[in-house]
Amino acid sequence: MSASQNQHEVHDHDEENDEFQVNIRDYLIGFLLAVFLTVIPFTLVMGNVIQDSVTTAMVILSLGAVQMVVHMVYFLHMNSKSQGGWIMLAFVFTLIIVVITLVGSIWVMHHLNSNMMPSMNHEVIESIQQLK
Amino acid sequence: MNATIDPSSRYYVKNHHPKNGSLLGFWIYLMSDCLIFACLFATYAVIGRNYAGGPTGAEIFDLNLVALNTAFLLLSSITYGVAMIGSQSRNLKKTMRWLAITGLLGFAFLLVELYEFWHFFSIGATPQRSGFLTAFFALVGTHGLHVLFGIVWLLVLLFQLKKHGLIVENRRRLFCLSMFWHFLDVIWIGVFSFVYLMGVLP
Fold it and tell me: How many CB atoms lie under 10 A from the CB of residue B112?
């Protein structure tokens, strides 16, 4: 029994090997890209490279998005095949929910704000109070 | 056959489980964590500019500290990678050493963040001061708490590694913690881009 169990264990280790496989190349590529993608936005902001704030914000956000993908692929080892594709499927679902949450909140609250703003204005409130 | 195997070998019964279901399970936990952060980011996006006459991001953020913290987290990602490589070549010493370095970098990150928070509190920029600060502390604080729990987990894992070596259970734990750690790094990208860098733009 113990012999067969040992055999089982050895076999098991070999099986697990494939699952936790990582390689140093991935980490190095990921790290270099990450450093690159981090240094650029910090330089842009700290060095005041672009005068226009909107352009800078767009560049920062796009570089941030690219860096997130880099981390996902090279550090989190995400690909369409791991765990029979379920990792990717769960991620895509989450991404949809995240986009709905972010875009939805900003959109709704922006409209709410612009519709509410006049009555929140100090002068308007005062003029209403004077009318009473 | 099964009845004669002792309970500790339950991981070896493969037929009933998908291979390493825990990796997928842990990934789904991370995705739900992602939703928490999405809500916090949405909150910040909505009320992050409501200063209520209080300090603005441009006035209180120190980008040098943020750059330092970003460097700590990025370096901890690559040191964790080295620990993973060490575990792959069954080098327990290398794994533990680089895991410890990763933990120290995480700890340095937390110290700098606590210093930053302490500084904000000392100049009256508390969470109660304005909508901006409420959203800020909720988002950045939640991330910091995650890092804290990551460090606790890392310490526990160091003890487990010391006691049992690189057995398959520990390698699975190491892999799960690596996903957690790298995931926190991904969230931090969002924090430094969206909160700090965009916060100081004129």
Answer: 15
Is B67 in the A-facing interface, judged by CB distances under 8 Å?
Answer: yes
- The 8-class DSSP code of residue B127 comes to T
Q: In this predicted complex, what is the ipTM?
A: 0.86
The predicted structure's pLDDT at residue A9: 45
pLDDT category, B181, cuts 50, 70, 90?
A: very high
Partner A contacted by B23 (CB < 8 A): yes
Do B88 and A20 lie within an 8 Å CB cutoff? Answer: yes
Contact residues, chain B, for A21 at CB < 8 Å: 88
Interface of B with A in 77-136 (CB under 8 A): 77-78, 81-82, 84-85, 87-88
Q: How does pLDDT run across B100-114, given as a tens digit for each residue?
A: 999 999 999 999 999
CB A45 within 8 A of CB A56: yes
Query: Nearest chain A Cα to B26, which residue?
Result: A87
C-alpha A39/C-alpha A13 separation (Å) is: 41
Please name the residue that has the structure tokens 């700290």. A46
Which two structure tokens, joined as six digits, stand for A36? 């690159």
Rounded Cα gap, residues B42 and A99, in angstroms: 10
* pTM of the shown model: 0.84
User: Model confidence over A63-85: pLDDT tens digits?
Assistant: 999 999 999 999 998 888 888 88
CA A12 to chain centre: 35
Residue that is written with structure tokens 């379920």 in the block: A86
- Show the tokens assigned to A128: 């209403």
Are B69 and B140 within 8 A, CB to CB?
no
